[in-house]
What does this fold into?
Amino acid sequence: MAKVVLVTGVSRYLGGLFARRLSADPTIERILGVDVVPPRHSIGRTEFVRADIRNPMIGRIMAQAGVDTVVHMNVIATPKDTGGRVTQKEINVIGTMQLLAACQKSETVQRLVVKSSAAVYGSSPRDPAMFTEDMNPKSMPRTGFGKDSVEVEGYVRGFSRRRPDVEITMLRFANVIGPSIRTAFTDYFALSLVPVPLGFDARFQFVHEDDATAAMILATTGPSVGIVNVAGEGFLTVTQCAAIARRPILPVPLAAAGMIGSIVKRSGLADFSADQLTFLAFGRGLDTTRMRTVLGFEPQFTTREAFEDYVRYLRPAVPGVDGVGDVVSDAAEVTAAAIGRVFDRIQP
It folds into this structure.
């Protein structure tokens, strides 16, 4: 059972939310929160320690406190949060390597919990309808956060071979969404005009920020479960999301999606890598059987409910216009019908 917990990334939104809610557990004797900058939000009774996980001093902090459980939540999804792609990769990959090196040397660490991502599965037209935890992607992520997540998981597996006595739980989350968290996807659906790859209507799964936090707490305080997919029940497509968010869509050829993404990225409105744009075309599905049967977790929000909770706090695309949702829904239906007719004509 966790007694002394070290949490990385407490100055980020999910890390702070996790630390704050873990503070309510009376069985946890002490919580240390590590980050390079002080948090601007409450972290409960967590003791903040200003430190960089890329620095070997993290090992001394763990030894002095007698840490028995390490919760790694500092794998950063968007480079603009760190000042650029180079810094993002250093924090994600080099930071994880240093953290695991400290865990390997520790005489007190008994459990490692890692917040991973379903981005490790990539996204391609050859993928299965639903990924189980033991499946490998048909096309590996080649850039950005997805590639970092694959490397992080590789280092964790190496650590597990070197320290088989340490329990490991790794949760692969679908896109986390909610009223307060900000990600590339929340920025994308906040655009006044949502670019959508022409001829595609990818399926998405979401997990609410509250459910993501609850799953991490269960992984920290409950039994060790290995690798588990975490997502809300059901799916939404891109056009359904746009309709719920009351956003008009702009169909663009997939070949031009990269150019559109670059323009949006340079404008500072949203941050999209090539892999994220591919995800918008092909989507991804996660099998969550292990989440329910092994982790023993049931999300409070379905995929649709999580997205609707995010939209509830979203500014309208056109202030004062209440009928945008109906217009978007009609446009989505017309676009889908037109695409269907094109495919009917080209089918052999």
About this structure: Residues 51 and 57 are 8 Å apart (CA to CA). Residues 324-346 form the longest helix (23 residues).
